[in-house]
Amino acid sequence: MNVNILVVEDDVIIQDMVCKFLQKEGWFVDACANGDDGLSLLYDKAYQLIILDIMLPGTNGQELLKQLRQICDTPVLMMTALSDDANQLRAFNNQADDYITKPFSMQILVKRAQALLRRSGALKKEIQAGKLVLFPETYATEYDGNKITLTPKEFEILELFARNAGKIISHETLLTRIWGYDFEGNEGIIHASMKKLRDKLPCSIIRTIKGVGYCLEVGGDD
Amino acid sequence: MNVNILVVEDDVIIQDMVCKFLQKEGWFVDACANGDDGLSLLYDKAYQLIILDIMLPGTNGQELLKQLRQICDTPVLMMTALSDDANQLRAFNNQADDYITKPFSMQILVKRAQALLRRSGALKKEIQAGKLVLFPETYATEYDGNKITLTPKEFEILELFARNAGKIISHETLLTRIWGYDFEGNEGIIHASMKKLRDKLPCSIIRTIKGVGYCLEVGGDD
DNA sequence: TCTATTTATTAATAATTTATCAAACTCAAA
DNA sequence: TTTGAGTTTGATAAATTATTAATAAATAGA
Prior knowledge:
- By secondary structure, chain A is an alpha/beta fold.
- Chain A has helices spanning 12-24, 35-44, 61-71, 85-93, 106-119, 152-163, 171-179, 188-200; strands at residues 4-8, 28-32, 49-52, 76-80, 98-101, 127-129, 132-135, 140-143, 146-148, 168-170, 206-209, 213-216.
- The longest helix of chain A is centred in the middle third of the chain and has 14 residues, at 106-119.
- Chains A and B meet through helix 4 and helix 5 of A and helix 4 and helix 5 of B.
- The structure holds a DNA duplex.
């Protein structure tokens, strides 16, 4: 799968340089210069990494971090000129994943970004969850070594479950992540899609938690 | 689950201080002063985080990191007096997860350790009350290691009891916390719900205090 | 022991959520 | 233009969960 990174930084020179170095790694980068734009981009698209400056016009980086943690758990790297401990502690309290102070070498920024992406599994070619293996590049799927043929939509859904194995995916999350936050249609589409997906899976590895959502059960196997 | 951390640092003063601060978080810490001891500890026990100094007698930290990555993918935080970029880049190339340079504040070390633990799922929160364990994120429930399947409402009720283990929950509290302060219905709903919940629990761990309320008994076990 | 009160139990019903299925629609490839 | 795989819709069935209401049992106080 493609790696998408969001950079929020108001200094054009730095923004430009950061983007360039990240793109050199083959990653896709969206950039903006203030917190509000950042937040609206986050609603539109799934990112695997977010890089935030702290001092921003309008909503600052700390505030933005706090707000985005309400809606997603994407790794966040804070990148700032504020080198005092208080600001760093505050960032980690707001559930940042890393914090580097300017000036920093671009190589190190890239390496730290890479470390976060590696740890979150975004750089893996395949996603494993119990006996289930997904290959996002080819849409190939295996369960316990046996091939399963999924349609693109089915694959997307199963990929979402596999990346969050053991966690509950609510109907709302499913709708926004698979059909987009602005999906107008009927919620029944979830049930129809889940039925088709489950029919192709060998056993009931997707549990229904009535009134809450679905959950891919990953047994203590492999 | 318990969090186990391995610290490899030859400077006794620093080792001591690091251990003390980590233990203050409720984490279990093993420490040693050289790479070879570190490696043999890694073979013996599963750690959720490894903290490595680079300059060590014998096998140094970079070398140790390279070797341990052959056998495990545990998050590694490098902690070193070497502040040059080359060493930091090398650490990340050897698949370190973080790198901080001495001198650093203990608070920041702890926060960074916490960030790594959080990201790797080692801190996932569960509610424990005696032999009862609740996982609010997945609605999973265990008693003495055995799975119990609860409906969302049953789970909510049990969660309230578990969060207040040993304390009496009055009927009024139950009603307002579970059914909302504006619940119009019959109070008999409490009795019906409690009956169903108790039927699923292996023994009578919820005591009735007549005229007052209910109380989750937490034996002096675990 | 008797009585009033509280709680437990049960079955029936209501409400809600999810599963299923067939038909209609879309869109790209032949 | 036709075909067909893939997706979506909407109607209906099935299942689960929540609630009520009636009755039984237990408890504490007189």
